[in-house]
Amino acid sequence: MTRNKLALSLAGLLLAPIAGTAFAQSAPAQDQSQPTASQSNPQQLQTITVTGSALPRVDTETPSPVTVLTAQQIARSGYTTISDVVRSISADNSGSIPNAFTAGFAAGASGVALRGLTVNSTVVLIDGHRAASYPVSDDGERSFVDLNTIPISAVERIEVLKDGASSLYGADAIAGVVNIILKPGYQGVEGTADIGNSQHGGGFTKKATFLAGFGDLNKDRYNVYFSAQYEMDNPIYNRERDYPYNSKDLTALGGPNGNFGNPATFNGSTVGATAPATLGVGANPLTGATQVKNSLYSPLGSCTNGTVLTSTAGVGSYCAENQVAQYGEIQPQTEQGGLYARGTFKINDTTKAYLSVSYMESKLWAQLTPQQIQTSTPNNTNNIALPPVLTTGPNAGKLNPNDPYAAAGEYALLNYQFGDIPQNNTYDNHNARVVADVSGIAGEWNYDAAVVLNHDWLNTTQTGFINYPALVNAITSGSYNFINPSANSAAELAQLSPNLSKQSTSDLDSLDLNASRSLFDLPGGSAGLAVGSQFRYEAQNDPALNPDDLFQSLGIAQTKGHRNVSGAYAELDLPLLESLEVDASGRYDHYSDVGNNFSPKIGFKWKPLDWVAIRGTYSKGFRAPSFAENGSSSSEGFVTLNPAQYTNFVNAHNGNAYSTVPYSLAEYTVANPNIRPEKASNFTFGVVLQPTSWLNASVDYYDIKKSNVITGPNFGQAISNYFATGATGVPGVTVIPDIADPTAPNAQARPAEFIGQYINANSLKTDGVDIDLQGHWDFGNGIHYVSELSGTEVFNWRMVLPDGTVESFAGTQGPYNLSSGAGTPRLKGSWSNTVQYGPATVTATIYYTGGYSEIAEDVGVGPDSCLSFNAAGTQFLPSNCRISSFTDVDLTGSYAINSHISVTASIMNAMDRKAPFDPANYAAVNYNPTYSYAGVVGRFYNLGVKVKF
């Protein structure tokens, strides 16, 4: 018998790859937070409520696919944050937000994006209730719940509904729902303490949790528990990792040299370089200087601070600097912690209530490269020059000591970086949440009423940005010493770069009411009815850090809005036969700012055999515009644009000066008060198999169509049109031209900024399949084996533009202009294997992400549309224009010394696999942090102890 079981298990595991992906457990869910009829009558089977249904049920396999991650599974994964746990789900795809993306709008936060529909199409619930969004929107547009604000130490399980659910949960539940369910009660005391470190240096972590509770709900009529957690992660610097993660000089791989210091690319080093320049009649010395013909650049001083003297033909000499190694961080320093307390009280045999209070804080410190003196926005300083004679300040009329050519009466064209002004960003997010809930039985009805008060406030501090008026004064008065920066006073640096700070807030207050009951008997059992309503208030206030555009290279993003939302829903479950169940639900919502919406859903589950179930759903959903999209809001982002791609423009400028050098182009998008909600239709169809008590599997196909997709203006088309004709050619989009190229003053100016409103313009379609498998076997001699596999394959992910153009992203690095530009791999999955033998438990988990083409059709199409090229622009980089797949193996284990003490250990990325080379990803240096972050961290060791009484 043992041999037969082993043979069957091996056969199942060997057949899994043939299906094209991996699997994960779809386990029964249980919600003990509300009493049901079964709890008052012990003769009945216990009923539970599963995410995606408002009805308590005995059979937890609903028409919709739901994946459950228990606290035990979370512990076996080795992950210690909700963010890591949720984002490891195979259905999490393009558009999710990694913690490592510190240059993004929503830096310091982490969000989940099921089905690749971005973070604003997945609803995150805590105990079935909505949570306040992060105070800053992703890309200045998309609202989402920060996973870092959820206490993992109190988590009972996580339920992931991979289906549309607007019929019960309202707006935004298009891609699915992630419901984090906290412990309903706890008795005893337990604590954990862990430390960890990377084999390759950096990233030392320490963490601790504490959980204590007392009171028996049935005997004492109350239970109170308290949990606390803390985690501190040290930074990992790029210089602590091997090439190519520690440099932008890709010449060894056939790519360009992206190191700083070359004046031809306007990326200066901390030493700086100058060349003699002249000024045309009436020209502005800050913008209109022209390098003296045949002159060469030379350093302002000796090449120190890790710079290397370099000479380039036709440019001159300068101090080149590998600033990735000098300043770059793979992992910023983070600190997270929080408290959660819950008291549950049994008022009588049919009624109970609970009150929970939580406070979570998450801090992130990010170090960035210092600011350049040459920037393109909001003021173009690419041709900035030091005057030979000072014109302002106490030394006006004297020769400029910073200008090496002052005695000859020549200006000094300046290429420089402010190495004495460090650029650091600090994000300190606080989340306070109070939930009061009462539930019970009144006659034939089970009821639940809850009040949620949730406030989130984020303190942002940024240093190192250069104030433009102060820069002008420093240039004309000579108050800043470019030759010897160490001589600059603290007062001068503070005037040139004062600290910037703001507090952003978001609020969600809600009243949730629901009730359910049995109606009448049908051949398959009792029909069930659930009804509910919700009233909530939502608000967001994110002020701008740079409201007057005074600071160079800093965009403007501000969001402000509030609204009232009311909704009512109903669900009817009809067990028409013992083998056939039909479930129908619908919800009507009223938004004070965008009007009304009705979302219906119907599903079925048919069991032709006891061990086979066929299920399917069809639903309509919607996404309400965020405050960034329809409030008093605007956002300015930057994209890197290479004018050399546009032949006519290059010819007009003869390839000279700054006009044909890659630069940051500003895209300014403002809210549209007339924007309409996005609409969606969802279809799922699947099969659930349980041929034996020790094996269950499911295969589910999904199909999602979105219309009225809210998007920014078609800046890509506007850019192409402008370079070709000098006009945007896109309705509603205007352009602000840059200043003229001093070497070609009569030629067309390159664009400095494009401006437009959000619009309902696009539609999209995505479909794919989820496959889940869970098996468990007892082999005798105390050996228990559990195998859990989970995987998703994306068949299609297509965006349709207003003109009918179809952009296909499945298996590519598109959509590129989205969040962190992570792309849409077709395959993503995990396979976990656990062996328990007496007091020892060992788990090995394999995570796999498929490779993808290094193309993105929202950036360009055609045979030359690869996102990265060599320095000459003649060959793809990599040569096959493809990013490799990534496989990561994690090992975790625990050993119970006795009933009170156990030790834990893990080796994350045990095979020390390296992250695939991805030179096009702009969220990190030469790798993709969304899918292969573990590969750049490398092998990581953890050791911990758990004490329980």
UniProtKB/TrEMBL annotation:
Domain of life of the native organism: Bacteria
Keywords, in A-Z order: Cell outer membrane, Membrane, Receptor, Signal, TonB box, Transmembrane, Transmembrane beta strand, Transport
Signal peptide start-end: 1-24
Occurrences of domain TonB-dependent receptor plug (ranges): 61-177
CDD domains, A to Z: ligand_gated_channel
Pfam families the record matches: Plug (PF07715), TonB_dep_Rec_b-barrel (PF00593)
Membrane topology: Multi-pass membrane protein
Protein name per UniProt: TonB-dependent receptor
Family statement: Belongs to the TonB-dependent receptor family.
Subcellular locations according to the entry: Cell outer membrane
Protease as UniProt keyword: no
Domain TonB-dependent receptor-like beta-barrel: 381-909
Principal subcellular localisation of the protein: membrane
